[in-house]
Amino acid sequence: MAYLSEYNYYTNNGVAPEDANWGSYQYVSLYDIVNNFQLMYTGNNSLVNNEDRYKIIFHAKRGIQELNYDAFKEIKVLELDVTENLRFVLPPDFVNWVRVSLYLDGLLRPMTENIQVLSSNAYLQDNKGNILFDVNGNILKPENSNIDMDRLKGTKKDIYLNPGNMFDGLEGWNIDGTWYFDYALGARFGLNTSTANINPTFAIDKKKGVINFNSDMANKICILEYISDGMEAGDDSQVLVNKLFEKYIYAYINYEILNSKLGVQEYIVARARKERGALLRNAKIRMSNIHPSRLLMAMRGRDKWIK
Amino acid sequence: MINSVRNTVLSILNKNNYGYISPSDFNLFAKQAQLEIFEEYFSKYNDIVNMQNVRRSGSEYGDELKAIEEAMEVFSRVSHLTRSSSNNYFLPSIVTTGDDYYLLNKVSCYTDKLSTGTNTGISVNFLVDSAANFITDGIEEDDIVANDDTGGVAVVLEVSSATTLLLSDDIFQSTGEEYSIYDESTVSESEKVNHNRIDMLKQSLLTAPSNKYPIYVQNSTTLKVYPKTINSAGQVWSQYFRYPSDPKWTYITLISGEPAFDQTQPDYKDFELPMDDEYKLIAKILQYSGISIREADVYTFAKREELEQSQQSQTTK
User: What are residue A53's DSSP bridge partners?
Assistant: First the structure.
């Protein structure tokens, strides 16, 4: 791909969206990667020859996916309203979450993942406990399980957190923003620290593709930070790699091809593997972007008086 | 070169009164000999590459690969492939491209459509569309114009005005014909895949064919390009090696009955091989002639000559 003129970079040649090229120089496209790899690493006098292009594309994309999972730090952010159904449908390119936050009063409030079950499937049963089927032999299911109904209605218990308040740490019901508690009888058995947070909690149902919240979250704004695999919904022209990882991607493709090819000497495979590993470490160090001015800001706290 | 080859062959044959071969026999033998040498180029190319890979081949003046590539590329052709139906295109042939192909080296696709429309006027070698604005559409020299109705393809030689393009060929014969113009600079090379791979490839999320990475499968007379959106005239072109044309030693018959060489005849055709292959042509034609006139000595002599030449070139490696 040709270099952009400065006018093209800043204004996209006057064509909307005019910001299309901003920051584009940080990246190299999948097309360039495959093209350059074929030019420079394959052919009659190269270690890789007679290899199908689709294999090169496959390994290039797999390498980019792996980088997206941890090394790139390309975090996507999506804001959605959580309605009465207390559900946030995961975005189409979701692979894993980084942070889920409640956006309230102009502040981001990171929420805690609730490792307890918040949602469940259910089967309809008769009064003897037998499971009910339809005429096609499929199990009949209710719209919501009891645990889901309790959560949606706010009749499921949560822990109330409000330091200084006499009810702090007690389990109770949050109904339309008002907390209700059992009359305190007997002992309290300590705080469940995994959910001890004043903000609503959530649990991700990966199979169903939703984030479930407790009832505090109704009609509030949720911001999801997540990572994708960089495949851009199959649009190859949008698949990009940060230039800091360009050499690594070539090494990754080279290694994967040599490793799966019959008759390649083990020392050549080992050499390719070492090169791949070394380049990944280099690229990660570069990506971490450690430089004096950043360290300086952190080090300024060293003389702070701690009371 | 053909007359020199024939004279040498006849001279060797006549030396011991072995016999005489007629012009028609010579032409038949010449065709076979040329074909044999032509096919040897490809196996020799492979040998030289293997020599290079074991560091037993020179560079600069010792670069044999360069010489063999030059000899092969004489037969290289680039042609647009004629569309058969939907995403099927005819392979190069005498009927569609004017040449039979020996090896389909590369198939590429134009995927960036710059403009479409219907021509409103007729002028030889021009595309005229009063409703178009070829300048704002970004049409430039060397872009590809396809007549979607007739399948004709031409190259833009000049953007004469916003509504008129000068083309390399006269592909519009009447008004109201639809056309498409493709960006010549956006080319995607199509990869050949086997029939047993195509379905798996199409269903793979990571390797499914796309405009950037098209693929094709080959059938007896056509090839099928994927993705299916590549389905218009002018979108697919190929670079291939054609077979050499049949050599023909042409003559005029003199009163004495002896044929005299005449290269002004319309069907005259010289060999297409380089001069340094002349001795091979002579040796091979002599072999055929020896069989033809039932002279084992001639065949043996020619075969020995050929072997010696071959061994000589091997020892220099």
Answer: none
